[in-house]
Design goal:
The structure holds 2 protein chains of 2 kinds.
Chain A (H helix, E strand, L loop, with lengths): L2 H25 L4 E6 L17 E3 L4 E3 L4 E6 L6 E10 L10 E9 L4 E9 H6 L4 E5 L2 E5 L7 H6 L7 E4 L19 E3 L3 E2 L2 E7 L4 E9 L9 E6 L5 E7 L11 E2 L3 E5 L5 E8 L4 E8 L5 E8 L6 E5 L3 E5 L7 E5 L2 E5 L6 E4 L5 E5 L4 E10 L10 E2 L11 E5 L4 E3 L2 E9 L5 E2 L2 E7 L13 E11 L3 H11 L1
Parallel strand pairs in A: 10-29, 10-30
Antiparallel strand pairs in A: 1-35, 2-3, 3-35, 4-34, 5-32, 5-35, 6-7, 6-34, 8-9, 9-30, 11-20, 12-20, 13-19, 13-21, 14-17, 14-18, 14-20, 15-16, 15-19, 21-28, 22-27, 22-28, 23-26, 23-28, 24-25, 24-27, 31-32, 33-34
Chain B lengths: L1 H24 L10 H24 L1
Helix pairs in contact in B: 1-2
The chains are: A mainly beta, B mainly alpha.
Chain lengths: 476, 60
Protein backbone atom coordinates (compact mmCIF):
# COMPACT_ATOMS: atom_id res chain seq x y z
CA UNK A 1 0.00 0.00 0.00
CA UNK A 2 1.16 3.50 -0.82
CA UNK A 3 2.84 5.21 2.17
CA UNK A 4 0.62 8.28 1.95
CA UNK A 5 -2.51 6.15 2.01
CA UNK A 6 -1.25 4.31 5.11
CA UNK A 7 -0.57 7.70 6.73
CA UNK A 8 -4.06 8.91 5.78
CA UNK A 9 -5.68 5.79 7.29
CA UNK A 10 -3.70 6.23 10.54
CA UNK A 11 -4.73 9.90 10.87
CA UNK A 12 -8.43 9.23 10.31
CA UNK A 13 -8.26 6.28 12.71
CA UNK A 14 -6.80 8.59 15.38
CA UNK A 15 -9.69 11.01 14.83
CA UNK A 16 -12.21 8.15 15.06
CA UNK A 17 -10.64 6.90 18.29
CA UNK A 18 -10.70 10.45 19.73
CA UNK A 19 -14.41 10.87 18.89
CA UNK A 20 -15.22 7.43 20.38
CA UNK A 21 -13.23 8.30 23.52
CA UNK A 22 -15.13 11.57 24.08
CA UNK A 23 -18.46 9.80 23.44
CA UNK A 24 -17.44 7.07 25.90
CA UNK A 25 -16.71 9.67 28.59
CA UNK A 26 -20.05 11.36 27.90
CA UNK A 27 -22.18 8.20 27.91
CA UNK A 28 -20.27 6.35 30.68
CA UNK A 29 -21.51 2.94 29.40
CA UNK A 30 -20.36 1.09 32.52
CA UNK A 31 -22.56 3.34 34.71
CA UNK A 32 -19.68 4.23 37.02
CA UNK A 33 -17.14 7.05 36.84
CA UNK A 34 -14.89 8.90 39.28
CA UNK A 35 -13.75 12.52 39.08
CA UNK A 36 -11.07 14.03 41.27
CA UNK A 37 -10.14 17.65 41.86
CA UNK A 38 -6.93 18.45 43.74
CA UNK A 39 -7.31 22.16 42.91
CA UNK A 40 -4.03 22.28 41.01
CA UNK A 41 -5.67 22.89 37.64
CA UNK A 42 -9.12 23.70 36.29
CA UNK A 43 -11.59 20.85 36.69
CA UNK A 44 -14.77 21.02 34.67
CA UNK A 45 -16.66 18.47 36.79
CA UNK A 46 -15.84 19.51 40.36
CA UNK A 47 -15.89 23.27 40.85
CA UNK A 48 -13.68 25.26 43.18
CA UNK A 49 -14.72 26.03 46.73
CA UNK A 50 -16.57 29.34 47.13
CA UNK A 51 -17.12 32.07 48.32
CA UNK A 52 -13.75 33.83 48.46
CA UNK A 53 -14.78 35.56 51.69
CA UNK A 54 -14.69 32.19 53.47
CA UNK A 55 -12.07 30.18 51.59
CA UNK A 56 -8.86 30.64 49.64
CA UNK A 57 -6.54 28.62 47.47
CA UNK A 58 -3.17 27.68 49.01
CA UNK A 59 -0.27 25.46 47.92
CA UNK A 60 -1.67 22.60 49.99
CA UNK A 61 -5.25 22.87 48.72
CA UNK A 62 -8.29 25.00 49.56
CA UNK A 63 -8.26 26.59 53.00
CA UNK A 64 -11.72 27.01 54.54
CA UNK A 65 -11.67 29.57 57.34
CA UNK A 66 -15.37 30.40 57.73
CA UNK A 67 -18.57 28.44 57.57
CA UNK A 68 -20.29 27.50 55.26
CA UNK A 69 -18.65 27.04 51.86
CA UNK A 70 -19.93 25.55 48.63
CA UNK A 71 -18.80 23.67 45.54
CA UNK A 72 -20.57 22.31 42.49
CA UNK A 73 -20.56 19.03 40.62
CA UNK A 74 -21.28 18.82 36.90
CA UNK A 75 -22.32 15.36 35.74
CA UNK A 76 -22.07 14.25 32.08
CA UNK A 77 -25.42 12.42 32.30
CA UNK A 78 -27.95 11.20 34.88
CA UNK A 79 -26.61 9.16 37.78
CA UNK A 80 -28.42 7.68 40.75
CA UNK A 81 -25.83 7.87 43.48
CA UNK A 82 -22.87 10.09 44.24
CA UNK A 83 -20.21 9.26 46.81
CA UNK A 84 -18.22 12.34 47.73
CA UNK A 85 -14.86 11.81 49.41
CA UNK A 86 -12.92 14.66 51.00
CA UNK A 87 -9.23 14.48 51.86
CA UNK A 88 -8.54 17.19 54.41
CA UNK A 89 -6.58 18.25 57.45
CA UNK A 90 -6.65 21.00 60.01
CA UNK A 91 -4.17 23.79 59.38
CA UNK A 92 -1.16 23.54 61.75
CA UNK A 93 -2.03 26.74 63.60
CA UNK A 94 -5.59 25.62 64.41
CA UNK A 95 -6.19 24.58 67.99
CA UNK A 96 -8.11 21.30 68.29
CA UNK A 97 -11.78 21.77 69.07
CA UNK A 98 -13.67 19.24 71.16
CA UNK A 99 -16.77 19.78 69.10
CA UNK A 100 -15.36 19.67 65.63
CA UNK A 101 -18.27 18.76 63.40
CA UNK A 102 -17.73 18.66 59.65
CA UNK A 103 -20.70 17.91 57.44
CA UNK A 104 -21.41 17.74 53.74
CA UNK A 105 -24.75 18.49 52.14
CA UNK A 106 -26.37 18.41 48.72
CA UNK A 107 -28.97 20.97 47.65
CA UNK A 108 -32.30 19.15 47.77
CA UNK A 109 -34.73 22.02 47.23
CA UNK A 110 -33.73 25.31 45.66
CA UNK A 111 -36.94 27.14 46.58
CA UNK A 112 -36.32 26.81 50.29
CA UNK A 113 -32.50 26.33 50.06
CA UNK A 114 -32.78 23.03 51.84
CA UNK A 115 -29.66 20.81 51.93
CA UNK A 116 -29.60 17.10 52.75
CA UNK A 117 -26.74 16.94 55.24
CA UNK A 118 -24.47 13.95 55.88
CA UNK A 119 -21.64 13.70 58.43
CA UNK A 120 -17.96 13.65 57.54
CA UNK A 121 -16.38 14.02 60.95
CA UNK A 122 -17.81 14.36 64.42
CA UNK A 123 -15.14 14.74 67.08
CA UNK A 124 -17.69 14.30 69.89
CA UNK A 125 -18.27 10.71 68.74
CA UNK A 126 -14.61 10.16 67.78
CA UNK A 127 -13.41 11.21 71.25
CA UNK A 128 -15.89 8.97 73.09
CA UNK A 129 -15.01 5.78 71.25
CA UNK A 130 -12.19 4.94 73.69
CA UNK A 131 -14.03 5.81 76.90
CA UNK A 132 -17.62 4.66 76.20
CA UNK A 133 -18.85 1.22 75.16
CA UNK A 134 -19.27 0.97 71.40
CA UNK A 135 -21.65 -1.30 69.49
CA UNK A 136 -21.66 -1.19 65.69
CA UNK A 137 -24.18 -2.51 63.20
CA UNK A 138 -23.34 -1.53 59.61
CA UNK A 139 -23.14 2.27 59.71
CA UNK A 140 -25.22 2.52 62.88
CA UNK A 141 -23.32 2.96 66.13
CA UNK A 142 -24.45 2.98 69.74
CA UNK A 143 -22.21 4.53 72.39
CA UNK A 144 -23.11 3.79 76.02
CA UNK A 145 -21.64 5.50 79.07
CA UNK A 146 -22.45 2.35 81.06
CA UNK A 147 -23.01 -0.85 79.13
CA UNK A 148 -26.70 -1.65 79.58
CA UNK A 149 -27.57 -2.96 76.13
CA UNK A 150 -25.99 -5.88 74.29
CA UNK A 151 -27.02 -4.80 70.81
CA UNK A 152 -28.61 -1.92 68.92
CA UNK A 153 -31.91 -3.71 68.24
CA UNK A 154 -32.55 -4.25 71.96
CA UNK A 155 -31.78 -0.56 72.53
CA UNK A 156 -34.24 0.61 69.84
CA UNK A 157 -36.95 -1.79 71.04
CA UNK A 158 -36.52 -0.82 74.66
CA UNK A 159 -35.55 2.84 74.70
CA UNK A 160 -34.40 4.52 77.91
CA UNK A 161 -35.59 7.99 78.99
CA UNK A 162 -35.46 10.36 76.03
CA UNK A 163 -33.42 12.97 77.92
CA UNK A 164 -30.58 10.46 78.28
CA UNK A 165 -30.28 9.92 74.53
CA UNK A 166 -28.68 12.04 71.83
CA UNK A 167 -28.81 11.11 68.18
CA UNK A 168 -26.76 12.07 65.18
CA UNK A 169 -27.69 11.65 61.53
CA UNK A 170 -30.38 9.19 62.55
CA UNK A 171 -34.12 9.55 62.82
CA UNK A 172 -35.36 7.82 65.93
CA UNK A 173 -39.15 7.80 65.94
CA UNK A 174 -40.65 8.88 69.20
CA UNK A 175 -44.37 8.49 69.96
CA UNK A 176 -44.56 11.71 71.88
CA UNK A 177 -47.54 11.77 74.23
CA UNK A 178 -48.49 14.67 76.48
CA UNK A 179 -50.04 13.30 79.65
CA UNK A 180 -53.03 15.24 81.01
CA UNK A 181 -53.36 17.13 77.75
CA UNK A 182 -56.38 19.39 77.57
CA UNK A 183 -57.35 20.89 74.27
CA UNK A 184 -57.55 24.63 73.93
CA UNK A 185 -60.96 26.22 74.27
CA UNK A 186 -59.93 29.46 72.57
CA UNK A 187 -58.48 30.04 69.16
CA UNK A 188 -54.84 31.06 69.01
CA UNK A 189 -53.98 33.86 66.60
CA UNK A 190 -50.41 34.53 65.49
CA UNK A 191 -50.33 37.98 63.95
CA UNK A 192 -46.58 38.23 63.52
CA UNK A 193 -45.78 37.81 59.81
CA UNK A 194 -43.43 35.03 58.75
CA UNK A 195 -41.37 35.00 55.59
CA UNK A 196 -40.81 31.99 53.33
CA UNK A 197 -40.90 28.43 54.52
CA UNK A 198 -41.23 27.06 58.04
CA UNK A 199 -42.02 23.83 59.84
CA UNK A 200 -43.93 23.51 63.08
CA UNK A 201 -45.17 20.84 65.47
CA UNK A 202 -48.69 20.69 66.76
CA UNK A 203 -50.56 18.27 69.02
CA UNK A 204 -53.96 16.69 68.48
CA UNK A 205 -56.15 14.70 70.89
CA UNK A 206 -59.88 14.21 70.34
CA UNK A 207 -60.04 17.34 68.22
CA UNK A 208 -59.86 18.49 64.63
CA UNK A 209 -56.53 19.63 63.21
CA UNK A 210 -57.54 23.11 62.19
CA UNK A 211 -55.37 25.90 60.83
CA UNK A 212 -56.16 29.01 58.78
CA UNK A 213 -53.25 30.59 56.94
CA UNK A 214 -53.39 34.12 55.53
CA UNK A 215 -50.71 34.45 52.86
CA UNK A 216 -49.54 37.33 50.71
CA UNK A 217 -47.21 37.33 47.72
CA UNK A 218 -44.57 40.08 47.52
CA UNK A 219 -43.88 39.34 43.82
CA UNK A 220 -40.27 40.43 44.07
CA UNK A 221 -38.55 37.56 42.26
CA UNK A 222 -39.34 36.08 38.87
CA UNK A 223 -40.01 32.52 40.03
CA UNK A 224 -43.49 31.10 40.48
CA UNK A 225 -44.42 31.57 44.13
CA UNK A 226 -46.19 28.28 44.76
CA UNK A 227 -47.00 27.18 48.30
CA UNK A 228 -47.11 23.61 49.58
CA UNK A 229 -48.71 22.67 52.87
CA UNK A 230 -47.66 19.19 54.05
CA UNK A 231 -48.77 17.39 57.18
CA UNK A 232 -46.70 14.50 58.56
CA UNK A 233 -47.50 12.00 61.30
CA UNK A 234 -45.01 11.37 64.12
CA UNK A 235 -43.64 8.48 62.05
CA UNK A 236 -42.78 10.91 59.29
CA UNK A 237 -45.50 9.69 56.90
CA UNK A 238 -47.06 12.36 54.69
CA UNK A 239 -50.78 12.32 55.53
CA UNK A 240 -51.92 15.49 53.78
CA UNK A 241 -50.64 17.71 50.98
CA UNK A 242 -52.06 20.86 49.47
CA UNK A 243 -50.48 22.81 46.64
CA UNK A 244 -51.44 26.44 46.14
CA UNK A 245 -50.44 27.47 42.64
CA UNK A 246 -49.19 30.95 41.85
CA UNK A 247 -51.51 32.06 39.06
CA UNK A 248 -50.19 35.60 38.77
CA UNK A 249 -46.38 35.16 38.80
CA UNK A 250 -45.88 38.91 38.97
CA UNK A 251 -42.42 40.42 39.30
CA UNK A 252 -43.48 44.03 39.72
CA UNK A 253 -43.12 44.11 43.49
CA UNK A 254 -46.87 44.49 43.88
CA UNK A 255 -47.98 42.78 47.08
CA UNK A 256 -51.01 40.54 46.56
CA UNK A 257 -53.06 39.22 49.45
CA UNK A 258 -54.10 35.62 48.78
CA UNK A 259 -57.35 34.00 49.89
CA UNK A 260 -57.47 32.33 53.28
CA UNK A 261 -56.11 28.76 53.17
CA UNK A 262 -57.81 26.41 55.56
CA UNK A 263 -56.31 23.18 56.84
CA UNK A 264 -58.96 20.94 58.31
CA UNK A 265 -58.33 17.25 59.13
CA UNK A 266 -60.72 15.33 61.35
CA UNK A 267 -60.44 11.94 63.10
CA UNK A 268 -56.71 12.03 63.65
CA UNK A 269 -55.28 9.72 66.30
CA UNK A 270 -53.71 11.38 69.33
CA UNK A 271 -50.17 12.50 68.78
CA UNK A 272 -47.79 15.04 67.45
CA UNK A 273 -48.02 16.24 63.85
CA UNK A 274 -45.47 18.09 61.80
CA UNK A 275 -46.78 20.76 59.44
CA UNK A 276 -44.52 22.13 56.72
CA UNK A 277 -45.27 25.32 54.83
CA UNK A 278 -43.01 25.21 51.80
CA UNK A 279 -42.73 28.54 50.04
CA UNK A 280 -40.05 30.86 48.72
CA UNK A 281 -39.12 34.21 50.26
CA UNK A 282 -41.78 36.08 48.24
CA UNK A 283 -44.49 34.47 50.37
CA UNK A 284 -45.45 36.09 53.66
CA UNK A 285 -47.71 34.32 56.16
CA UNK A 286 -49.45 37.35 57.67
CA UNK A 287 -51.57 35.48 60.14
CA UNK A 288 -52.13 31.94 61.46
CA UNK A 289 -55.32 31.09 63.35
CA UNK A 290 -55.63 27.70 65.02
CA UNK A 291 -57.66 25.88 67.61
CA UNK A 292 -54.62 23.75 68.54
CA UNK A 293 -52.98 24.48 71.86
CA UNK A 294 -49.38 23.92 70.76
CA UNK A 295 -47.58 25.43 67.81
CA UNK A 296 -43.80 25.11 67.97
CA UNK A 297 -41.66 26.15 65.03
CA UNK A 298 -38.71 23.91 64.26
CA UNK A 299 -35.12 25.20 63.92
CA UNK A 300 -35.66 28.40 61.92
CA UNK A 301 -38.08 31.26 61.62
CA UNK A 302 -37.81 34.27 59.36
CA UNK A 303 -39.83 36.96 61.11
CA UNK A 304 -41.00 39.28 58.33
CA UNK A 305 -41.21 43.09 58.47
CA UNK A 306 -43.05 44.03 61.68
CA UNK A 307 -42.70 47.30 63.53
CA UNK A 308 -43.55 46.20 67.04
CA UNK A 309 -42.05 44.13 69.84
CA UNK A 310 -41.90 40.37 69.22
CA UNK A 311 -41.76 37.86 72.07
CA UNK A 312 -40.50 34.37 71.34
CA UNK A 313 -39.87 31.35 73.54
CA UNK A 314 -37.32 28.64 72.75
CA UNK A 315 -35.66 25.51 74.12
CA UNK A 316 -32.60 26.15 71.94
CA UNK A 317 -29.32 26.43 73.82
CA UNK A 318 -27.68 28.50 71.13
CA UNK A 319 -29.91 31.02 69.34
CA UNK A 320 -28.66 32.66 66.16
CA UNK A 321 -29.90 35.95 64.75
CA UNK A 322 -29.26 37.58 61.40
CA UNK A 323 -30.85 40.17 59.15
CA UNK A 324 -30.37 41.46 55.63
CA UNK A 325 -32.32 44.63 56.31
CA UNK A 326 -30.38 47.65 57.73
CA UNK A 327 -33.66 48.95 59.24
CA UNK A 328 -33.88 45.79 61.35
CA UNK A 329 -30.61 46.29 63.22
CA UNK A 330 -31.58 46.36 66.87
CA UNK A 331 -30.95 45.25 70.43
CA UNK A 332 -32.16 41.73 71.18
CA UNK A 333 -32.97 40.43 74.65
CA UNK A 334 -32.18 36.73 75.04
CA UNK A 335 -32.77 34.94 78.33
CA UNK A 336 -32.71 38.35 80.05
CA UNK A 337 -29.40 39.55 78.59
CA UNK A 338 -28.94 42.26 75.98
CA UNK A 339 -27.25 41.59 72.64
CA UNK A 340 -26.71 43.88 69.73
CA UNK A 341 -27.62 42.88 66.19
CA UNK A 342 -25.54 45.65 64.65
CA UNK A 343 -24.46 44.32 61.27
CA UNK A 344 -26.39 43.04 58.26
CA UNK A 345 -25.51 39.69 56.67
CA UNK A 346 -23.75 38.62 59.86
CA UNK A 347 -25.03 36.01 62.28
CA UNK A 348 -24.81 36.66 66.00
CA UNK A 349 -25.20 33.71 68.32
CA UNK A 350 -26.20 33.64 71.97
CA UNK A 351 -25.73 30.62 74.25
CA UNK A 352 -27.63 29.62 77.36
CA UNK A 353 -27.94 26.63 79.66
CA UNK A 354 -31.63 27.33 80.33
CA UNK A 355 -34.26 24.78 79.31
CA UNK A 356 -36.74 27.35 77.99
CA UNK A 357 -35.92 30.98 77.52
CA UNK A 358 -37.53 34.14 76.24
CA UNK A 359 -36.36 36.21 73.30
CA UNK A 360 -37.54 39.79 72.84
CA UNK A 361 -36.99 41.55 69.53
CA UNK A 362 -37.68 45.24 68.95
CA UNK A 363 -38.93 44.59 65.40
CA UNK A 364 -39.09 42.02 62.64
CA UNK A 365 -37.25 41.08 59.43
CA UNK A 366 -34.85 38.94 61.42
CA UNK A 367 -33.96 35.29 60.90
CA UNK A 368 -33.96 33.41 64.19
CA UNK A 369 -32.50 29.92 64.19
CA UNK A 370 -31.18 27.21 66.49
CA UNK A 371 -31.18 23.50 67.18
CA UNK A 372 -34.61 23.38 68.86
CA UNK A 373 -38.10 24.87 68.65
CA UNK A 374 -39.53 28.39 68.85
CA UNK A 375 -42.99 29.49 69.92
CA UNK A 376 -44.93 32.70 70.37
CA UNK A 377 -46.05 31.59 73.84
CA UNK A 378 -44.55 29.53 76.65
CA UNK A 379 -46.37 26.37 75.54
CA UNK A 380 -43.73 24.85 73.31
CA UNK A 381 -43.32 21.17 72.51
CA UNK A 382 -40.34 19.41 71.02
CA UNK A 383 -40.73 15.69 70.29
CA UNK A 384 -37.21 15.35 68.90
CA UNK A 385 -34.33 13.72 70.63
CA UNK A 386 -31.39 16.00 71.24
CA UNK A 387 -28.92 16.07 68.41
CA UNK A 388 -25.17 16.35 68.71
CA UNK A 389 -24.18 19.89 67.96
CA UNK A 390 -21.41 22.25 69.02
CA UNK A 391 -23.12 22.98 72.34
CA UNK A 392 -23.75 19.43 73.47
CA UNK A 393 -23.28 18.81 77.18
CA UNK A 394 -22.73 15.09 77.80
CA UNK A 395 -23.02 15.21 81.61
CA UNK A 396 -26.63 13.99 81.62
CA UNK A 397 -26.36 11.89 78.48
CA UNK A 398 -25.88 8.11 78.66
CA UNK A 399 -26.45 7.01 75.07
CA UNK A 400 -25.48 8.24 71.62
CA UNK A 401 -27.10 6.65 68.60
CA UNK A 402 -25.63 7.68 65.27
CA UNK A 403 -25.49 6.74 61.64
CA UNK A 404 -21.83 7.54 61.23
CA UNK A 405 -18.67 6.34 59.53
CA UNK A 406 -15.42 7.18 61.28
CA UNK A 407 -13.03 9.10 59.01
CA UNK A 408 -9.86 7.28 57.96
CA UNK A 409 -6.45 8.76 58.70
CA UNK A 410 -3.78 8.81 56.04
CA UNK A 411 -0.46 10.51 56.88
CA UNK A 412 -1.47 13.96 58.13
CA UNK A 413 -4.76 13.84 56.29
CA UNK A 414 -8.19 12.50 57.08
CA UNK A 415 -10.40 10.90 54.46
CA UNK A 416 -14.17 10.97 54.94
CA UNK A 417 -17.01 10.12 52.58
CA UNK A 418 -20.72 10.77 52.28
CA UNK A 419 -23.14 9.15 49.86
CA UNK A 420 -26.12 10.94 48.34
CA UNK A 421 -29.16 9.91 46.34
CA UNK A 422 -28.90 12.17 43.29
CA UNK A 423 -32.51 11.44 42.25
CA UNK A 424 -33.69 13.37 45.31
CA UNK A 425 -31.27 16.26 44.81
CA UNK A 426 -31.82 19.49 42.90
CA UNK A 427 -29.86 19.87 39.68
CA UNK A 428 -29.78 22.38 36.86
CA UNK A 429 -28.53 20.92 33.55
CA UNK A 430 -26.77 18.14 35.45
CA UNK A 431 -25.13 20.53 37.91
CA UNK A 432 -25.47 19.80 41.64
CA UNK A 433 -24.63 22.13 44.48
CA UNK A 434 -22.89 21.01 47.68
CA UNK A 435 -22.30 22.68 51.03
CA UNK A 436 -19.43 22.01 53.45
CA UNK A 437 -20.53 22.90 56.96
CA UNK A 438 -17.88 23.61 59.61
CA UNK A 439 -19.64 25.68 62.30
CA UNK A 440 -16.68 25.50 64.72
CA UNK A 441 -14.65 27.71 62.34
CA UNK A 442 -17.00 30.64 62.97
CA UNK A 443 -15.57 30.97 66.47
CA UNK A 444 -12.29 32.13 64.93
CA UNK A 445 -11.59 35.52 63.47
CA UNK A 446 -8.60 34.57 61.31
CA UNK A 447 -8.37 33.85 57.61
CA UNK A 448 -5.15 31.84 58.01
CA UNK A 449 -6.52 29.02 60.14
CA UNK A 450 -9.06 26.41 59.25
CA UNK A 451 -9.49 23.22 57.28
CA UNK A 452 -7.35 22.49 54.25
CA UNK A 453 -9.19 20.50 51.62
CA UNK A 454 -6.53 18.68 49.66
CA UNK A 455 -8.79 16.80 47.32
CA UNK A 456 -12.43 16.17 46.48
CA UNK A 457 -13.28 12.92 44.71
CA UNK A 458 -16.71 12.04 43.38
CA UNK A 459 -17.74 8.52 42.48
CA UNK A 460 -20.91 8.48 40.41
CA UNK A 461 -23.02 5.37 39.96
CA UNK A 462 -25.99 4.96 37.66
CA UNK A 463 -27.59 2.72 35.07
CA UNK A 464 -25.30 1.06 32.55
CA UNK A 465 -25.80 1.64 28.83
CA UNK A 466 -27.28 -1.86 28.53
CA UNK A 467 -29.80 -1.13 31.31
CA UNK A 468 -30.68 2.22 29.71
CA UNK A 469 -31.36 0.52 26.35
CA UNK A 470 -33.49 -2.21 27.99
CA UNK A 471 -35.42 0.45 29.93
CA UNK A 472 -35.96 2.50 26.78
CA UNK A 473 -37.54 -0.42 24.92
CA UNK A 474 -39.54 -1.53 27.99
CA UNK A 475 -41.08 1.92 28.33
CA UNK A 476 -41.98 2.12 24.64
CA UNK B 1 6.58 16.36 2.97
CA UNK B 2 3.88 18.70 1.68
CA UNK B 3 1.62 15.70 0.95
CA UNK B 4 1.83 14.58 4.56
CA UNK B 5 1.14 18.10 5.80
CA UNK B 6 -1.88 18.28 3.50
CA UNK B 7 -3.19 15.01 4.99
CA UNK B 8 -2.75 16.40 8.51
CA UNK B 9 -4.51 19.61 7.43
CA UNK B 10 -7.56 17.70 6.14
CA UNK B 11 -7.85 15.65 9.35
CA UNK B 12 -7.42 18.73 11.56
CA UNK B 13 -10.09 20.59 9.56
CA UNK B 14 -12.45 17.63 9.90
CA UNK B 15 -11.62 17.35 13.63
CA UNK B 16 -12.48 20.99 14.24
CA UNK B 17 -15.77 20.75 12.36
CA UNK B 18 -16.77 17.46 14.04
CA UNK B 19 -15.72 18.62 17.53
CA UNK B 20 -17.60 21.93 17.10
CA UNK B 21 -20.76 20.10 16.03
CA UNK B 22 -20.40 17.70 18.99
CA UNK B 23 -19.96 20.70 21.32
CA UNK B 24 -23.10 22.33 19.91
CA UNK B 25 -25.15 19.17 20.44
CA UNK B 26 -23.64 18.09 23.79
CA UNK B 27 -22.03 21.16 25.42
CA UNK B 28 -18.65 20.51 27.06
CA UNK B 29 -18.34 16.97 25.67
CA UNK B 30 -14.89 17.90 24.32
CA UNK B 31 -14.04 21.06 26.27
CA UNK B 32 -14.30 19.22 29.60
CA UNK B 33 -11.20 17.24 28.63
CA UNK B 34 -9.48 19.08 25.79
CA UNK B 35 -9.08 22.72 24.80
CA UNK B 36 -10.05 22.98 21.12
CA UNK B 37 -7.95 26.17 20.86
CA UNK B 38 -4.83 23.98 20.73
CA UNK B 39 -6.31 22.22 17.70
CA UNK B 40 -7.03 25.57 16.07
CA UNK B 41 -3.44 26.78 16.70
CA UNK B 42 -1.98 23.55 15.31
CA UNK B 43 -4.32 23.78 12.29
CA UNK B 44 -3.23 27.40 11.61
CA UNK B 45 0.50 26.57 11.93
CA UNK B 46 0.03 23.60 9.64
CA UNK B 47 -1.79 25.76 7.09
CA UNK B 48 0.94 28.41 7.25
CA UNK B 49 3.68 25.81 6.65
CA UNK B 50 1.73 24.47 3.64
CA UNK B 51 1.44 28.04 2.26
CA UNK B 52 5.22 28.50 2.67
CA UNK B 53 5.79 25.23 0.79
CA UNK B 54 3.40 26.45 -1.94
CA UNK B 55 5.22 29.80 -2.21
CA UNK B 56 8.62 28.08 -2.49
CA UNK B 57 7.25 25.79 -5.21
CA UNK B 58 5.93 28.77 -7.18
CA UNK B 59 9.23 30.68 -6.71
CA UNK B 60 11.21 27.67 -7.94
Amino acid sequence: MNKIIKFRIILWLILLIAISFFCYLKIVPGGKITYTNNFKKFNYFIGEITPKERSKKTDEGFLIFKDPVYFSLQTPRNFEKGKITLKYKLSNNLEKSLTQIIELGILADKNVWNYEIKPLENSVIDNLVNSWSLIKKDNLILLQKFKNYENIDSFINNLPESKKIVIYNYSLKNKYVITNYKKSTDKIEINIPLKGNYIFYTYVKDEILNYDFYFSDLNENKDFDNIDINVYSYKGDLIYNKNIEDKTNGTNGEKIFLEKEGLFIADLPEGIYKIEVKANDDIITNKIITSQKYISFLNRLWLAQYNDKINLFTDTQEVKFSTINPDSLQTVFVYGSKFSLDETYRQISVKSEKQVGEIILEKGDVIVSGNGVFGFNKDIINPNYKKIDENINLDKIDYILADYNFPMEFNDYKIASAEFDLNKAYSENGKYSFIISTPFLNRMESDNRGIIIKEIAVELTGKTLKEEIINFFKNK
Amino acid sequence: MKKYLMEIFYVLTASMIIFSIMELIFPRIILAYFNINWLLIFWLLNGMVILIFNKNEIDN
